Amino acid sequence: MKPLNFALGAGAVALAAAGPAAAQTIVRVSHPTPATSHYGVGTQAFCADLEKRTANRYKCQIQAGANDERASIEAVQLGTLDVTNTSTGPVSNFVPEVGIVDIPFLFRDYDHARKTLDGPIGQEILAKFPGKGIIALAWTENGFRHLTNSKRAVVKPDDVKGLKVRTMQNPVHIQAFQSIGVQPTPMAFSELFTALQQGVVDGQENPIPVILSSKFSQVQKHLSLTGHVYSPALLLMSPALWNKLSDADKTAFREAAKTGAAAQRKKVNDDEAAGIAQLRADGMEVVVAVDGNAFRTALTPVWTDFAKKYGADNIRRIQDVK
Ligand code: EAX
């Protein structure tokens, strides 16, 4: 028997919809943190909306807690994974221009970041991905990053001098931390909990939703609300699957990605609102009154470098988003 020809017209489509279930494509999706985290909530919302929009012709298989974002991005590039929801942590190793959004103290607040990424600037950055063998569906969100450590309460830049802090495998972050006297130790997220537990590093930095969902309160005493950098995230897709999609299905994936992003950001908001009290209850000592201006000033020299690398005009354009 010949395979069903989907170009038969509306009648055939209606018949297929009324008849036995149409062929189903499994979409393999990963995200770094547990299912209950912001990434889990966002990914599940993406999948539910995709399945609904395509009448279940696409069905997700979600791998939660995949941990190693760099490996997930490589798998998406290779086509052994279809979609990953990842922070930009390792992304600039694949698409260098993305590094601009990883600059510390670039975004003023959540509104500024979300507006920039959903607007023309963010869309221009997404357009850089296909040239590197990756489809970027939408910006999701990890959140503003805060510093935790096992040694001391950090209020000002002097307090971090000499601390061994795990950073993401992100050139912008590594350079920024080095410039204020931190010993940055880049490593995959998958190794982080054990590294903190065994004292291989003194500290780490992540948004509240990650600190909560990864239970870092079990291995870190001090939390300082440094909010030193916004950590964007993305839903990235493999061209191997993307290139097989009809235009209508491409739209379904893109729209579902927006639904996922909205759910993920809402969960970030909720965790920001309730998370600090929870972390205190879990035994963390929280410094709220961090000297943010002193951290900003300490990072001024490295900003000069970033302006050279990414273009002062491009940075200004992001700062000017109101
Ligand atoms: O995306 O590696 C990190 O610290 C990330 O923030 C984490 O995997 C969530």
User: What value does the average pLDDT take?
Assistant: 94
Percentage of helical residues? 40-55%
Q: Based on the structure given, which CATH architecture is correct?
A: 3-Layer(aba) Sandwich
Low-confidence stretches: 1-19
Overall form: globular
Strand segment tally: 9
CATH class: Alpha Beta
The set of bound ligands, ions and cofactors reads: (2R,3R)-2,3,4-trihydroxybutanoic acid
Terminus-to-terminus distance: 60 Å
User: What is CATH's topology name?
Assistant: D-Maltodextrin-Binding Protein, domain 2
Rg is 21 Å
Give, in order, the helices and strands: HEHEHEHHEEHEHEHEHHEHHH
Total DSSP helices: 13
Number of domains: 1
Largest sheet: 9 strands, mixed
Q: Approximately how much beta-strand content do the residues carry?
A: 15-25%
Which structural class best describes the helix and strand composition?
Answer: alpha/beta
Oligomer: single chain
Q: Could you state the CATH homologous superfamily? A: Bacterial extracellular solute-binding protein, family 7
List the helices and strands and how they pair.
Elements: H1 10-18, E1 25-30, H2 38-53, E2 58-63, H3 69-78, E3 83-87, H4 110-118, H5 120-126, E4 135-149, E5 164-167, H6 171-179, E6 183-186, H7 192-197, E7 203-207, H8 208-213, E8 222-237, H9 239-242, H10 247-281, E9 285-287, H11 292-298, H12 300-310, H13 312-319
(2R,3R)-2,3,4-trihydroxybutanoic acid binds at residues 32-33, 69, 87, 89, 142, 168, 189, 206, 210, 231.
